[in-house]
Amino acid sequence: MTQTESSADHKALMDTHASRRYFQKFERITQHLTQVAAARAAEGELSDLDVAVITRYLTAISYTFRALSMKYLLVGRDTGKFFGSLSMDAVESGFPVFNELLVMANDAQQAQTHLRNMPSSEDLKDQMLRVIIGEREIPTKLQFAMSQRLYYEELLKGELFWAQNHPQVEWVENLEDRRRFLVHWAVYDSQVNLPTIYLLEIEDSGRTALPKDERRWPEVQAHLMAQSLGGLKLVTIAKGFDESFDDLHPKRLRRYHVGPMYSSAYTRQTGPIRDVLEQARAPEGDDWALAWTVEELLSERVKEERAGWFSTVEREVFALDPFSGRGVDTGATRMERAIILPQRPFQALEELSPPGFASVRKYVVSPQGRVLSY
Fold it and tell me: Which pLDDT belongs to residue 137?
């Protein structure tokens, strides 16, 4: 994709009302996503640990949106300076572009300095009151200063979803001669501007437990971050890991793609989803749909390979999707697509019944805010 084509796909939210609606929409969507995780747990598809880890990343995504909503709170208003506006991917994802997260990470490094040089919230509020009462004007410039203060305060709180969220490890259980861990990490995929979450279950036959191993754990973290590319197949990532660490055995690897988000108000979607949203004629706040894709790779069995003259090592043999030879194409054991949408768009989807959606799991948000699985 050329720079010109890429720029054409990006949309700047210059209007105050549109910008605030966008952030409010995502605040609701991220809340629904955590309900979807709970629904999958109720269906027996996620463990309690899985839900806790995934919810942590989804909550981090919501904190990132909250911070960005503060940064761009006064967009479209005369703040005395051109501050820019949120740039979002209007074609591929509906999410902010990758560069927004890079800038945010840089701002976080300097948040303490910015706050030190800013008036306190109380001072800003006092100044606003004086302008409103004394000069009978809207204190836009002071409101802008307050919004920036709130932005840096959000960054200082931490727990946000960054461009790179480095691997963490959770103990699962002790086996006879080894331990089982869940390693998880996440990235913001720069190619498609979407959050991507990885969960890797491994068995550790090393002498020292992986989290306490000062040699292996930094190597594992660096290796996994280097392999966190959306274009890489799961089988490529898992085999690379298996061959790089003789005493770490990858048994199950999952990759969650959160998005794209489709909305007739913000994205230029094509195909069936456009017809669904147009026919739904949903009220403001309900005119959206969010896709959610899970790729999963399982170890089928173990084989012994010679390592040097006198020793052997275990290597995993991964199960690929047996249907129509698609496993070779997908590099996964299975892939599941789901879509989360409010009731009106869901009814339109059922009426239109476009091809390709029969096998897609539907999670429907009721008017009361409950998430139901279909």
Answer: 84
Vertex 364: Cα angle to 358 and 370 (nearest 5): 155
pLDDT value, residue 83: 59
Using the 3D structure, point to which of 157, 188, 221 is the last residue of a domain: 157
pTM of the model: 0.92
Catalogue the E-assigned strands of 190-271.
194-204, 248-263
Looking at the structure, tell me whether residues 106 and 151 fall in a common domain.
Answer: yes
Kindly state the tokens that stand for 174: 């002790």
Together in a domain, 274 and 350: yes
Distance CA 118, CA 124 (A): 9
By the 8 A CB rule, do 331 and 306 touch?
Answer: no
Q: So what's the pLDDT on residue 304? A: 77
Q: Do both 223 and 147 map to the same domain?
A: no
Tell me which amino acid residue 211 is.
Answer: P
Burial grade of 336 (CB within 10 A; 0-12, 13-18, 19 or more): middle
Q: What is the pLDDT of residue 3?
A: 42
pLDDT (0 to 100) of residue 271? 74
Same-domain pairing of 142 and 230: no
Q: Are 53 and 172 within 8 A, CB to CB?
A: no
Cβ atoms < 10 Å from Cβ of 268? 13
Domain region containing 315: 164-373
Based on the domain organization, do 238 and 148 belong to the same domain? no
Cβ atoms 119, 127 nearer than 8 A: yes
Burial of 260: CB neighbours in 10 Å, binned 0-12, 13-18, 19+: buried
Question: Are residue 80 and residue 186 in the same domain, yes or no?
Answer: no
- Reported as half-sphere exposure (CB side, CA atoms, 13 A), residue 278 has a value of 10
Angle at 135 between CA 134 and CA 137, to 5 degrees: 125
Does residue 106 sit in the same domain as residue 202? Answer: no
Q: Which residues of the chain have pLDDT under 70?
A: 1-9, 76-83, 308-309, 321-328
Residue 181 pairs with which residues in a beta bridge? 171, 202
pLDDT for residue 5: 42
State the total domains in the chain: 2
pLDDT of residue 2: 43
Q: Last residue of some domain: 124, 157, 190?
A: 157
pLDDT value of position 322 = 65
